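Reopening: structure tokens for the magnesium ion complex, inputs below.
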Amino acid sequence: MNVSLKKPALSTAAKAISISDVNLYYGALHVLKDINLEIKPGEFFAFLGPSGCGKTTLLRLIAGFNTARNGKVVIGGQDVLDMPPWKREVGMVFQSYALWPHMTVARNVAFGLEERRLPRAEIDARVQAALELVGLEKLADRRPSQLSGGQQQRVALARTIAIEPKVLLLDEPLSNLDAKMRVEVRRELRELQQRLQLTTIFVTHDQEEANTVCDRIAVFNEGRIQQVGTPMDLYEKPANLFVANFLGTANILDGRVIGTGSDRTFEVTGAGSIPIPPGTDVPAGAKLVFRPQYATIGHVQPGWVSLSGTVMHCEFLGATVRYGIAVDTATVMIDVPFHSGAGLLPIGSPTVLGLQPSSALWLAE
Ligand SMILES: Nc1ncnc2c1ncn2[C@@H]1O[C@H](COP(=O)(O)OP(=O)(O)O)[C@@H](O)[C@H]1O
Ligand SMILES: [Mg+2]
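Re-run output (same inputs, fresh job):
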């Protein structure tokens, strides 16, 4: 998309979204559980979680297509829960783009504005501005069937932006695109959002998409928000095992805490023990968690601890080699930088893992 660097001709004003104590049921099914969330004005915010965890349901609640049993949804200081969707001035882009096949690109974008009975000149100006923003001004006379998936996605976006919504809601907008297109469009989406400064919620089940596009992420599981934070926060300081597993690869080892106060160690079942840094919060039933790049194999640096294991498999990935190391009954992944000419460790050989205590986490379910 050739985004023009002019100030957008469409007016946007960044609004905050505040959700408190929301519970939603489909019949007996409790789908959203005690949802509390503060989204800042102009923020690009992600709802991230596995399929079926309630992301679309919450998005539709904000848009006004679902109703909650209790709680509050406030957009730009206005309580909207009892307001019909068309009064909320919320723009939503659906997973299926829902374009009119018999209308041109320009008519598709104009449609919502015509329904609002805006003056013709205003409609034309907004259609032009929206198409320019997504780089489709030259394709205004085409029909959706004459466009690629990525272009259709941009028409859907232009149509939504043209109504000058208070907030933009995107439900898995990249999921119908091929892998290469997804990477391209997500970058454009980020750029567009930055220029418009429009508060945006982006729903996805893909952690890489959420990490690369959004300022902050709410991680969902089974209708509950597990944690809210920047991509880095969630990766470095996950609140529980679910978040650690969902964002990146996490090695998880069983064990038990020995000692009390500032003199605690974690005895990893069948492999050795690690001092727990004083002041570390270790929840009941915690397991040891660390990322593949935070351990060494075969040598242990001063101040690090060693755990014994056996080399089970090895994948050469170019810049790194990923080893699978059996530690007692678990297998952990360790990424080692690859140096030209260096040999690989033989499968089946005993080895030691070196782990820096400060990069270890203790997390429970
Ligand atoms: N209209 C509906 N009626 C009954 N159950 C629904 C309806 N829509 C979604 N569900 C159920 O609610 C849960 C959450 O769905 P959804 O919000 O679509 O999840 P996600 O978008 O995270 O994949 C799922 O268990 C789903 O099967
Ligand atoms: Mg969904």
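The first helix runs from residue 55 to 63. The chain has two domains: 17-245, 251-363. Marking as resolved unless the reporter disagrees.
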